[in-house]
Write a structure and sequence with these properties.
The longest helix is centred in the C-terminal third of the chain and has 35 residues. By secondary structure, the protein is an alpha+beta fold. The protein contains 3 helices and 4 strands.
C-alpha cells in the first residue's frame, strides 16, 4: 500500500433516517453513509460496495438498520470504497474451553440426579397401587 491508500473503520449512527417518511428511510441511509464518508475521508468520490448495499436493503425500504459498522478504503485516485466491516471472532482460549467443559459436566450430573429422583417417584407410585 502506498501512502495515499488508507483504511478506516467507523460505526455510523443512522437514526436520522427515522426523521424522514417511512417510504424514504433506506434511501436516506445511503445518503447518510455518503455524507459521512465525504466528511471523514475528504473526497467527493464515494462508492458503496454491493454487499453493503444488499445488507442495508435486506430489511426493505421502510426498516433499515439503526447503526452499521463500515470499512472505508481510500484509493490512489481519491475514490473511497465503503464496505461493511465484520470483526473476526478470536477462537476460544484453552482456559475458557476447560471452563465450559466443566460447566457441561455439572449440568449433565444435575440432569442425571433429576432423572434418578423421578424414577424413584415412579417406583413409589407403582408400589402404592
Amino acid at each position: 500500500m502506498s501512502e495515499d491508500n488508507s483504511t478506516r473503520i467507523y460505526t455510523v449512527n443512522l437514526a436520522k433516517a427515522w426523521d424522514t417518511p417511512k417510504y424514504r428511510r433506506t434511501d436516506r441511509v445511503i445518503n447518510i453513509i455518503k455524507e459521512f464518508t465525504e466528511r471523514h475521508m475528504q473526497t467527493n468520490k464515494v462508492k458503496i460496495d454491493q454487499d453493503l448495499n444488499r445488507h442495508i436493503w435486506s430489511r426493505g425500504k421502510r426498516n433499515p438498520p439503526r447503526r452499521i459498522r463500515l470499512r472505508m478504503i481510500k484509493e490512489d485516485d481519491d475514490t473511497v470504497v465503503v464496505s461493511s466491516y465484520i470483526e473476526e471472532k478470536s477462537s476460544l482460549s484453552e482456559e475458557s474451553v476447560e471452563e465450559s467443559e466443566i460447566q457441561a459436566e455439572k449440568v449433565e450430573e444435575k440432569v442425571e440426579e433429576k432423572a434418578k429422583v423421578q424414577a424413584e417417584k415412579v417406583e413409589e407410585k407403582g408400589k402404592r397401587k
